[in-house]
Write a structure and sequence with these properties.
With 217 residues, the chain is an alpha/beta fold. Helices cover 40% and strands 19% of the residues. It is built from nine helices and seven strands; from the N terminus they run H-E-E-E-H-H-E-E-H-E-H-E-H-H-H-H. Strands 1, 2, 3, 4, 5, 6 and 7 form a seven-stranded mixed beta sheet that branches. Helix 4 packs across helix 5 and helix 8 packs across helix 9. The protein is globular. It starts with a helix and ends in a 5-residue tail after the last helix.
Length: 217
């Protein structure tokens, strides 16, 4: 049986290429790789990278899904005026590392190293949910690179008791249990917490999502 999420991602990759961005995987350091969706004009050959000619916008995704799944509806519009870079954060999508480090600081460090390898000197960073934490850390550690930060889903401002009420309200005992689902129902619950309205999707779609995008602790 065809995995519906796999089929959709194939279509989405085609749409992203039509919007002018293409996937490019970089070795940040031995054992660490990151996949970026980058302006197609900056990668004429596999190992030939040129600097962007437009102002740079970097879009950082949240905890559920990878870069293009999160920003699929924004990329096409933004590429008309900006050089858009959409990375998969480490442990998501096409990015990973054999290092034990899991902190936002490590994400920020690897992101900036990757962007510099791609010829990006300055950028505006847009972060959603978990991506906002990484964006703020990038601004803190690399003010010479980050010109401005736009954040959405301001979880940094949520107090502990608010987070606890969200977690318990969803039927979990801990935040990590909610953020790392191992079942279709867990994926459904996580998406419902992050969405502004109820998602009426068939259970099969949640199962397919979990198969294609396993949550890595």
């Amino acid at each position: 049986m065809v995995n519906l999420v796999t089929a959709y991602l194939s279509l989405l990759r085609w749409v992203m290429k039509m919007a002018g961005v293409r996937p490019y995987t970089l070795e940040i350091e031995p054992g660490t790789v990151m996949r970026f969706w980058v302006p197609e004009e900056t990668i004429s050959k596999p190992k030939l990278v040129s600097k962007p000619s437009k102002p740079v916008v970097v879009l950082l995704h949240g905890f559920c899904g990878d870069g293009i799944m999160t920003w699929q509806f924004q990329v096409g519009t933004l590429t008309k005026k900006y050089a858009v870079y959409v990375p998969d954060l480490l442990f998501f999508g096409g990015s990973g590392t054999d290092k034990p480090e899991r902190s936002p600081g490590f994400q920020a460090e690897c992101l900036v190293m990757g962007l510099r390898k791609l010829g990006v000197e300055k950028c505006v960073v847009v972060g959603f949910s978990y991506g906002e934490i990484v964006a703020l850390k990038m601004g803190e550690l690399y003010p010479e690179v980050v010109q401005a930060i736009v954040i959405s889903g301001f979880i940094v401002a949520m107090m502990d008791f608010v987070l606890l009420s969200v977690v318990q309200g969803a039927g979990y005992s801990s935040l990590s249990e909610m953020l790392l689902p191992t079942s279709a129902n867990g994926v459904k619950s996580l998406l419902s917490v992050g969405a502004h309205r109820n998602l009426c999707l068939p259970n099969r779609l949640y199962k397919d999502f979990l198969e294609v995008c396993p949550f890595k602790p």
